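TL;DR need structure tokens for one chain.
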Amino acid sequence: MKIKRLLIFAISAGFMLFDQHIATAQTVTLDYYFNHEVHKAASGTIERYHYTWEDNSNSGFSIFGEAFARAGARLDTLGSAPTAGNLKGSDIYIIVDPDTKKESPNPNYIQSNDITEIAAWVNAGGVLVMMANDSANVELPHFNNLAAKFGMHFNDDLQNHVLNDQYFEDGAVVTTGNPMFKTAHKIFMKDVCSIATKYPAEAALKNSSGATIIAIAKYGKGTVFAVGDPWFYNEYTNGRLPKDFENDKAATDVAEWLVKQANANRH
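>> reply
TL;DR here they are.
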């Protein structure tokens, strides 16, 4: 009987640990509202594309999503404006490349009420990821209104300019020794905008010219991560780059770093 009781306890403890793991899994929510690009598919139907979890082509974020899944997180999306209710249950919220009128006839610009809601969510422990682009391909004015809340500003410039992907080294950034990058030593980041910082923001990665291309900030109990490019879409994480570039490893490193921040912020 004693052995049976021990076995039952061990099985119960295992289920408890399993349940705790499920309960503490982080939810990573990708914005589908401020970036909502569509195109006509081969079937003739209009479909959502560009920086989506489900897109396995070069324009998608499926590989970045897999990195989060390996880190123990769940993937979600938000196709409406961020509110306290809509963000409830999300631990990491990613906004990528907000639309310009060139990309959408009726873009959803980031408004003051959106900033209030997002800032309150971050203050309570959320992890916000802001991924910009060069100014020709992103709606910076409204995005910068949000960034300013955390001491950041995406500059209207072009760093790491690479001509037709012929000169990969022009987009090279060394990450060796950077605590955010545990396994990646050299990454490729093409045509990015730099980020100006003031308290509470600080530089987390600079390029060879000394420009900040990744910034982070603590805001209340939460964390903000900003980068001047969409960066981790499949085109630059699927192995097509020269072998010494490690964007695939960097995607894993950053996903693990973000999940770690989310875990720490909620405790």
